[in-house]
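Pasting as-is:
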Amino acid sequence: MELISDSVLAKSNEQSSRARYRRVRLYTLLVAGLCGCGGGGTQPPPPPPPMVSSVTVTPASASILVKATQQFAANVQGSGNLNPAVNWYVNDVQGGNSTVGTITASGLFTAPNTVPNPAQVTVKAQSVQDTSKSGTSSATINPENVQISVSPTSVSLQLSGTQKLNVTVTGTVNQSLSWTINGAPINAATPWGTIDSTGLFTAPSLLPASPMVTLTATSLEDPTKSASAVATILATAGDITVTITPKNPQVVFDGSQSIQFTATVTGTNNTAVNWSVDNNGGTNAGNITSAGVFTPLTFGCSNVVPSAGIHAVSVANLGAQAVTTAACRGRNKPADFGHVCTRCDFDSSVPGSERNNYP
C-alpha cells in the first residue's frame, strides 16, 4: 500500500509541475506580446521639435493711394507642428500708426491720409513662434489724383423719358459725387427734369425753353473735378410736330402790350393745342389765352421777370410740344435779357408811361 501511494504521489507532483510551467510560459508570452519585447521590436523615436525656417509676405510690393487698403498675407514655413501665427509691423511699429499706415492682425493695411516721408513703407510679418524669423513687403503710398468721367456724354430722349448715366471716379478712395442740372442742385425744382443720386435722369413732361440740358457730376473729394453729359429733350411723339410763331419776341412788361402766338401742328388731323406760360425766375410772368394771346403782368421796376416760356402742347399727343420765349422790356428801350434792375428811369418820350427797367 505504501508503494502505491508513493507512486501516485510522484505522478501527481509531476503533473502539477508541468501545469505550473505552462502557466508561467503563457504569462511570459503574453507579457512579451504586450510589451513588444517578445518579437525583438523597439519603440518609435519621438517627433522632432517644430522649427520655423522662413516667413514670406505677399504681395512682395504694392502701390496704394492714401486712405486706401491693401490685404497682405504671411506664409510661415518650417518643420514639425509649427505655429503659423505672425505679428504685423509697419516700419517696425507693431500695428503701425496714423503717419505710416496701420495694419490689423489679419494683415489688412490701411494707408495714411497723407503721403509719408519717405513715401515707401515696410510691412513686416514676424513669426510668433520664432521672433528671429520674419518676412517683409514694401508699400508705396501715392497722393490722390482725382479723375471723373460720365458716359454716355450725349443723349437724346423724349419727354418723360429716362436715361442712366454712368460715372467713373479714379485716383481716390472716395467715390462720392454730386449732380447738378444746368448748374442747379438736384433737390431744386427745375424745368429741365430730375436726376437721382445714381445718375438716372428723367426728362421733364413739359418741353423747356432750352431743350439741351447739361448734367454735371462733381467729385466730393475734389470739387474742382467734374464731368458732364448733354441731354437733348425731344418733343415729336407719334410723328407729330408742333412749331410756334413768332419765335422769341419782345414785349413791354407794363401790361400795355399783348402778343398773338400761333401753333402749327403736323402729322395729325387734330391741330388743337393747349397753351401755358412758365418763367425763368420763379415768378408768374403773364397770362395766355386758349387762342394763344399772351399778355405780361404789370411789373414794378424791382420785380420784372426777364423772360417767359410759352408752351404749346398737342392735344392729339401730349408728347408733341413746342416752346418759345417772350422777353420783357421797358417802353422804347432795348430789351435787357436777364439784367437785374438797378434803378428806374422815367421815359419822358412817352407821356404818361410807367417807370421802366433800365440800367
